[in-house]
TrEMBL record:
Reaction(s) catalysed (UniProt annotation): aldehydo-D-ribose 5-phosphate + D-glyceraldehyde 3-phosphate + L-glutamine = pyridoxal 5'-phosphate + L-glutamate + phosphate + 3 H2O + H(+); L-glutamine + H2O = L-glutamate + NH4(+)
The name this protein goes by in its record: Pyridoxal 5'-phosphate synthase subunit PdxT
Annotated GO MF terms: glutaminase activity; pyridoxal 5'-phosphate synthase (glutamine hydrolysing) activity
Biological processes annotated in GO: L-glutamine catabolic process; pyridoxal phosphate biosynthetic process; pyridoxine metabolic process
Domain of life of the source: Bacteria
Function: Catalyzes the hydrolysis of glutamine to glutamate and ammonia as part of the biosynthesis of pyridoxal 5'-phosphate. The resulting ammonia molecule is channeled to the active site of PdxS.
Pfam families (UniProt xref): SNO
Keyword Lyase (UniProt): yes
Subunit comment: In the presence of PdxS, forms a dodecamer of heterodimers. Only shows activity in the heterodimer.
């Protein structure tokens, strides 16, 4: 079965590892460049994108992830991970991995709506409504034509796919429903 890594520096690492196991994959914590060599796909968890981004740069893992992703390795970024994937961060003059043609806004819901949950079915992922957990979440203001929008909530893009790249503004790993992790595994299986 598929070996799926979770970037394990900071953030919701254990939650993703647990969900991957529930969804039937072999889950691997990726801390060093060597760890990346053995995985078929990678999850960039939520946390603090500036902190994780600095780690990626300092360790050289960022470069490795970019070249693997350009070679077709499936990568899924959740929340901070979505920011790490983006080619454009609105109102900032830096990018991290710069892989995905999306324009993300950090902490986009502001402090009043810091964290919230909405229930929605996600076409192609789950017909049953899923709990979508937003925690100081970003959203995408726009995407390039090559990017498929999987879900909008209140007119904001919160899930998108571009070939082997998947981004969600919310956190499926903190729920009990592995549908999104299964979706990523299917995506990875057909890559
Ligand atoms: N606000 C965080 C950031 O900008 C993301 C929050 C999260 O991943 N839950 O990195």
């Amino acid at each position: 079965n598929m070996r799926v890594g979770v970037l394990a520096f900071q953030g919701a690492v254990r939650e993703h590892l647990r969900m991957l196991t529930m969804a039937g994959a072999q889950a691997v914590a990726v801390k060093r460049r060597e760890d990346l060599c053995s995985v078929d796909a990678l999850i960039l968890p939520g946390g603090e994108s500036t902190v994780i981004g600095k780690f990626l740069q300092e360790t050289g893992l960022g470069e490795d992830i970019v070249s693997r992703a350009e070679g077709g390795m499936p990568v899924w970024g959740t929340c901070a991970g979505m920011i790490l994937l983006a080619k454009h961060i609105v109102n900032e003059n830096y990018v991290h991995l710069g892989l995905m043609d999306i324009w993300v806004r950090r902490n986009a819901y502001g402090s009043q709506l810091d964290s919230f949950i909405v229930r929605r079915p996600v076409p192609g992922v789950s017909e049953k409504p899923l709990d979508l957990v937003f925690i100081r979440a970003p959203y995408a203001e726009k995407v390039s034509p090559g990017v498929e929008v999987l879900l909008e909530v209140d007119g904001k893009i919160v899930a998108a796919r571009q070939g082997n790249l998947l981004a969600t503004a919310f956190h499926p790993e903190v729920t009990e429903d592995p549908s999104f992790h299964r979706f990523f595994l299917e995506m990875a299986g057909s890559a």
